[in-house]
Structures are given as C-alpha cells and as structure tokens.
C-alpha cells in the first residue's frame, strides 16, 4: 500500500490547503452542471458513470493517493499556476479541472485552453501525478504510436457548446516527487497554522519559490520528452491524429526544420511585443507555436 503524508506534517498540510483555498483552478462543474450533461447524454448514462466512479473511489488505494500526496499536489499546482509559475512558458493558457469521471477513467486532471490568433482554441490535457512517472509516459508514447490520444466525456468545446466531449486530444504527464511535497511541508511548518493563518510570510514564500523551481525543472524535462515523442511519430508519417474542431492540428509537423521556424516565429513575436529576446524559448511554446502557425508561415 502507498504510504500517505507523515502524520507530523498533516496539520501543516491542512493549514496550507485552507490558506490556498482561493487559489484553486476552476472546475468544469463551475460552468456546466450535472443537468447540462444529462440533457446531452441522458440520465442513465450519467448515473452509470457516477456509480462506476463511486465504486472506484471507495477502493482503499485510491483513497490513500487522493487524500494524501495526490490531492495535495493539485492544491500546490493550482497555487503555483495562479502565482505565474510559467509551467507552459509565456503561453496564455486557461486551466480547468476536469470532471471527476474523466479525471479517474480518462487519466486527465486538467484541460488547458490555448486561444489561437484566429480566436479559436487548442486544447491539451494534463495528468499531474506524484511518484514514478516514466511508466505513464511510456504508455502515453505507445498509445500515440497506435494513433490513440485522450478523450474526455464531460467537457464542452469553448468554440461551440453544441460539441460535448473531446476526442483525440494530446495529453501530457507532469510528475512531482512525493519527497518534494513533504520537504515543502517541513519547510513551512510553523509558518502556517493548522487553521490556515500565515504567521511566517517570508518563510512561506521562500518554500514556495523552492518548490516551484523544482516543479519547473521536472515539467520542462517531461514536456520536452513527450512533445518530442509526438513530433517523432508525426515525422514518421502518422498524419491527422490531432485534427478536429477542438484539438490542435499538428499534422503539418513532418519536417525537423520546423523546430527552427517555431523558434524564429516566437523570437519575432517577442520583438514585436518588446519582450526579452534573450530569454530561452520554452519547449511548450514551441509546441504551441508550430500548431498555430498558418500555412503561409510554414511554406
């Protein structure tokens, strides 16, 4: 059985969750009610999904993960994103927490909505997890090589509310080590009371900065590996895997030279917007840029 957060650190964990309660990421349920999905799928379908979720939720192993490291990571991830952690470079992204059924059975914790220059949206999924991530990443690569991307049942196309659900959406695994979360809690012990009162603001800020820097390093390396996997498959001739009304179209990614074009495109954009040109281009920005570039820029 997985071990949870050590008992001495749990009061601090409760205090952090209270202190961060207003920093959470919005949920799909904040915008679309159960009745909305019942109108689309029918009561029987939604009720069956709820029963399946409840049965899974009652399993002891799931409870340990969710009530301890997993749930706490989501709290920290939401706080870091709201603080402008830059996990996705300078791309302007809105994150939404997925519906609980999709979280468990589709393996997607968050959907990132990226608004393209033409006003439409590109959507990406993220599974934020603790512990060993390589197994999940390897499974993701194998699924992609077979042409299988992620689907969501309980989501609404921001470009067209008549389109419920997502098919063929790229999904990324973002992992943080459990010991990093426990180290953070140890660092802020005493700075935040179990009731959520912050008594050591500087101590908390220092610990937050340390943890966010660690997460940035993890995520950058993980995104680099996974986006490389997507590009490699597409360069080998797998076309159209991500096309659709809500999924970004990366089928044009067939030549390695477009890495450079993406970099140049972002550099020009930084000049036009008076951004620091010397700042390295984040790997996820490259991924987004290639997808949103028009045919004119690519040819």
Task: Describe this protein's structure.
The chain is of the alpha+beta class and 299 residues long. It contains 11 helices and 6 strands. Strands 1-2-3-6 form a 4-stranded mixed β-sheet. The protein has a two-stranded antiparallel sheet with strand order 4-5. A hairpin with a 5-residue loop joins strand 2 and strand 3 (121-130). The N and C termini lie far apart (54 Å).
What is the topology?
Elements: H1 10-19, H2 34-41, H3 43-57, H4 60-82, E1 93-97, H5 100-105, E2 110-115, E3 121-130, H6 134-145, E4 150-156, E5 164-169, E6 171-176, H7 178-188, H8 201-235, H9 257-272, H10 283-292, H11 295-298
Parallel strand pairs: 3-6
Antiparallel strand pairs: 1-2, 2-3, 4-5
Q: What is the element string, with H for helices and E for strands?
A: HHHHEHEEHEEEHHHHH
Largest sheet: 4 strands, mixed
Q: What is the strand arrangement across the widest sheet?
A: 1-2-3-6
Strand segment count: 6
